[in-house]
């Protein structure tokens, strides 16, 4: 199967719906806290509501795997879209902070199901020599969506207020679902029939069977997720610390995101040609060095350089977690395993900002950034040691 057939031919049916869904997610992300504040939440409570999105993804990881096994990838994505639509409608009519929080949790759960189903599908249909490019491109659609979404949301919000962002996501998710139904995709293998054991027991069996991978390479994925997520907290916090205005900090954050976004395909090509280890380890080392340099940034130019370094490090590893999950996934109960695998990374995504917050509370932001640089070093070592070797020297 050539790259032309395996990637470009499935682009409209696989990547376009994911791009649309990602644009919707990107449109909503900046306004969740604003919606909570409009409903009377304090700053701390608004931050907690934002965190509910990650909580929903963590809660949804294992059920997402079970759902994909039982009904198939495309039906699972359509069901996730329906939940997304319901959650967005709840966001639009929410009259209390906690009702909004419930809606945000549901958005996180639906995003988990969507991402898992697409991950499992690509693992099935794309051959190993092109797998990393396929996964990094999938990760790239999320990055592009996160970049475009806020601008599109802002344009609609100029007329509809904060509700406009939720309408953008609602329309984007609806178009994505229509494309899922309308566009043909290569068929995967037949899914196994549901086992006679309970869904929970089946998942437990899969986790126990693959615990050696999950507690080693999976722990590496958790550390990678923590380092990646921490950059989203330390850049704006350090900008505030050195006295930059919010607009300047946002611009610096956007520059970092642009660098990150542009590297997804080169990252996948490097993983396919050089091996996974040659991307994962440098990615963590660059992110670690950027965190280490953060306390030395005393102006906008220096912070921009650090932010670009963080975008470079994160972009270098675009798709690495999905690619490794696909590499080590079993041929049977694959989606269930991938749910457990993604749970490892999502736990790290949730833990990173919490570590920054905890260390900052007892010490300061600079020690927190230095500590996260240490976590990046451990992540690099873990990836270097535990990534399995394949014929291409991965």
From TrEMBL:
The keyword Endoplasmic reticulum does not apply. GO terms for cellular component: plasma membrane. Residues 10-391 form the Major facilitator superfamily (MFS) profile domain. The keyword Protein transport does not apply. GO terms for molecular function: transmembrane transporter activity. InterPro entries: MFS, MFS_dom, MFS_trans_sf, MFS_Transporters, Sugar_transporter_CS. Keywords: Cell membrane, Membrane, Transmembrane, Transmembrane helix, Transport. It is found in: Cell membrane. SUPFAM superfamilies: MFS general substrate transporter. It is a multi-pass membrane protein. The chain crosses the membrane at residues 12-33, 39-64, 76-95, 101-121, 142-160, 166-185, 247-266, 278-297, 303-326, 338-359, 365-387. Its main location: membrane. PANTHER family: INTEGRAL MEMBRANE TRANSPORT PROTEIN, RESISTANCE PROTEIN MDTM, PUTATIVE-RELATED-RELATED. This is MFS transporter. It comes from Phytoactinopolyspora halotolerans.
